[in-house]
Amino acid sequence: MVLLVTGGAGFIGSNFIFYQLKSHPEDRIICLDKLTYAGNLETLKDVKGHHNFKFIKADICDKAAVEKAFSEEKPDIVINFAAESHVDRSINDTGIFLQTNMIGTQVLLDACRKHNVHFHQISTDEVYGDLPIERTDLMFTESTPLNPSSPYSASKASADFITLSYYKTYGLPVTITRCSNNYGSYQHPEKLIPLTILSALANKPVPVYGNGSNVRDWIFVKDHCKAVDSVIRHGKAGEIYNIGGSSEKSNIEVVSKILEIMDKPKSLITYVADRLGHDRRYAVDYSKIEKELLWQPETDFDYGLEKTVEWYIQNEDWLKSVKK
């Protein structure tokens, strides 16, 4: 099978490529990435010479470049990781999020329709909005109405609707996964976990929004990659699958745990003005993928976090190559 992985030089996309090349050595991987601040060729250095891997520098909004990739590489499936993804950036500059996350998705869908290629959309649990912190009995299911809070999540929700419309209107085989917060190696240092690690390493203040009570469900990136692999190979066309980690933690819990692992004082924690429209709690019910595709998260949060801290401490050269 030939897989066209867009956004494959980013955090989750690159980890997905590593997983695929190891788990399915017979498959061919084509990585298409624009190489914005979130995409880094240094991340892919260990697979650049792999006989079943090819990199194409291109923007998913560029119709000609996308058509060229489809015509020359003849993919069987597109897995769309390409996206502007940082909520703070979407608040400060919404336009690029709408362009990449919505128009880029439409360009890929049109190419898939023309070439009869399965399209898989990587979405997020943020499209559902948020849940009350005190209502621990409530969780997002695939039928939860979408209620995005930020320009980022609104652009991703729009992409989901566009994707499903191509299935309903044209019969294009599509699938969607909505995952909770990922953590692991190669994540851009503007995100909570790597930002905390790097700030603590430098003995600098560790910023925490508001009072740190906002809750997220955390999943180790490799577990996410395994889930996506299951969906693209065994999922049903036209379906949505939630992916969760069964690891709900408040932001202050996560930051405190990192400081404990690193033997750094909690006095480094600095509370800052809360993010605009900050969602209170995310919690994902992944019983559908568990029942239908027999997938479950495998990595204990404390173990995964320790491994993540170790990785960032040991990969200073990669950190120097990251665009700000």
What does this structure look like?
The chain has 324 residues and is an alpha/beta fold. Helix content is 41%, strand content 18%. The chain has eleven helices and twelve strands. The chain has helices at 11-23, 63-73, 87-92, 94-115, 151-170, 192-201, 221-234, 251-261, 287-293, 301-314, 316-321, and strands spanning 2-6, 28-33, 53-57, 77-80, 118-124, 174-179, 181-183, 206-209, 215-220, 239-243, 248-250, 269-272. The strands form three sheets. The protein has a seven-stranded parallel sheet, sandwiched between helices. β5, α5 (151-170) and β6 (174-179) form a beta-alpha-beta unit. The model has no long low-confidence stretch (mean pLDDT 95).
CA radius of gyration = 19 Å
Q: What characterizes the major β-sheet?
A: 7 strands, parallel
Annotation field: number of helices: 11
Q: How many strand segments?
A: 12
Strand order of the largest sheet: 3-2-1-4-5-6-10
Category from helices, strands and their pairing: alpha/beta
Distance separating the two termini = 35 Å
| Mean pLDDT rating | 95
User: What helical percentage do the residues reach?
Assistant: 40-55%
Poorly predicted ranges: none
| SSE pattern | EHEEHEHHEHEEHEEHEEHEHHH
Overall 3D shape:
globular
- What is the percentage of strand-forming residues? 15-25%
